[in-house]
Amino acid sequence: MLEGETPKVYVNNSADAKWRPLQQDEIIKRAKSRLGPTDYSLTEYNCEHFANWCRYGKINSGQVRNAVIGSVLSPIGAIAWVGISVVATLAARK
Fold it and tell me: Which GO terms describe its molecular function (predicted)?
């Protein structure tokens, strides 16, 4: 951030449509209860897991879920593309 620049804050409560948020005092109590060293894990307990646990009582990360789905579907898509290319090449030779 440059000197004199106004900080930008983004609020992401997109899961409010899916889950009911806890009461504000409960969210704060949960967040404070985890101050200090923690067992951080990129895939099992990252900052998104923490935020969702505080706000909704659910340990969930859409980023991790999307990364896992993408890592599974990307190779499948590549294999399908190669298969389609082979079939198209063979059909063109006939």
Answer: N-acyltransferase activity; phospholipase A1 activity; phospholipase A2 activity
Q: Which long-range contacts (CB under 8 A, 24 or more apart) does 45-48 make?
A: none
Domain count, the chain: 2
- Rounded-to-integer distance, Cα 81 and Cα 36, Å: 48
Q: What is the mean pLDDT of each run of 10 residues along the chain (94 residues)?
A: 77 87 95 89 86 93 77 64 61 62
Q: What is the pLDDT of residue 93?
A: 62
| pLDDT at residue number 62 | 85
Verify that 73 and 92 share a domain, yes or no: yes
What pTM, to 2 d.p., does this model score? 0.62
